Amino acid sequence: MSATSAAILGCAGPRLTEPERRFFARAQPWGFILFARNCESAAQTAALVADLRDCVGRRAPVLIDQEGGRVTRLSEDAGRRWLPPLDAVARAGERAADMLRLRYRVIAHELSALGIDVNCAPLADIATPATHPFLRNRCLGETPGAVAARARAVAEGLLAGGVLPVLKHIPGHGRATADSHHDLPRVEAPLADLRLTDFAPFAALSDLPMGMTAHVVYAALDDRAATVSTTAIGLIRQELGFGGLLMTDDLSMQALSGDVGGRAAAARAAGCDIALHCNGDLAEMEAVIAAAGPLAGAAAARAEAALARRRTPEPVDIAELEAKHDALLAGARDG
């Protein structure tokens, strides 16, 4: 078996092709990520998760973006539909953290039933009036304190349900006025302002096991997107104190220039532990694996520490948790 590669990869559809099976067995990515294109039904998704792990011969982490609201990957028979996070916290008011803890404990239950053990949440970006619409209603609030407390509740709900949280988008995407899926956002705010606002929730959550970088340029730091900026990664590690496994945002997004192999190499050179590539294109994945290299040294230690925080969830009455969640929303609205 090859050494584990410093990459997390997607796959093209709801079932693996033979070329994908052979590639994954040879490439040995550290983990996998699923999207809506991979999730037709609960039974099919569970089978795909098992097949992915079978390819690499180990319990590789399987990730998904199941925030609820607009970012929902699971099929309707596998996961409940939820309000967008910003709408939900507005409705819950002072009960928002309690509501979110319940919401993400239920989501963790749904994911665990399929074998998925990592969720790319909480999103700790701060919503502003100028936040791009692709991100705004995915945020948890408009002030650093509220976002930090609510993001902590999200993480606690996921961890209690046996699912590892991924803190994103470090060190803060909220001021960005462009969609990093298509363009490279640039934030011009002074460093002092960023420390007081955008960076603050990430510092408060620096103990979480995994994090995801932002494809955003912070002019106060340098002229490179944080994902490929040694300066930004240094700030994440040293000033914000984030000690967990640090992955890139999706390298197949168009915010970054150059080919995906070059993007992976630049991110790893800047200090990212893992290159994340999501679109399932086999040729691109070959390039990412070649550029990302093996998972070794401090990055491998952080990966091992993250996976050590996976736990068997305690039995709970999910219907009761859903009812409590719904009552918090209804009670806040009626009050």
Query: What is the subunit organization of this protein?
Result: single chain
- Total helix count? 13
Number of strands: 10
Q: Spatial order of the strands in the main sheet?
A: 9-7-5-4-3-2-1-10
Mean pLDDT: 96
Strand content: 5-15%
Overall outline:
globular
Helix content: 40-55%
Give the biggest beta sheet: 8 strands, parallel
- How far apart lie the N and C ends? 60 Å
Low-confidence stretches: none
Structural class: alpha/beta
Which helices and strands appear, and what pairs or packs with what?
Elements: E1 5-9, H1 18-27, E2 29-34, H2 42-56, E3 62-64, H3 85-92, H4 96-114, E4 118-119, H5 133-136, H6 144-160, E5 164-170, E6 186-187, H7 191-196, H8 200-204, E7 210-213, E8 217-218, H9 230-239, E9 245-247, H10 260-270, E10 275-277, H11 282-292, H12 297-307, H13 318-334
Parallel strand pairs: 1-2, 1-10, 2-3, 3-4, 4-5, 5-7, 6-8, 7-9
Helix pairs in contact: 3-4, 4-6, 4-13, 10-11
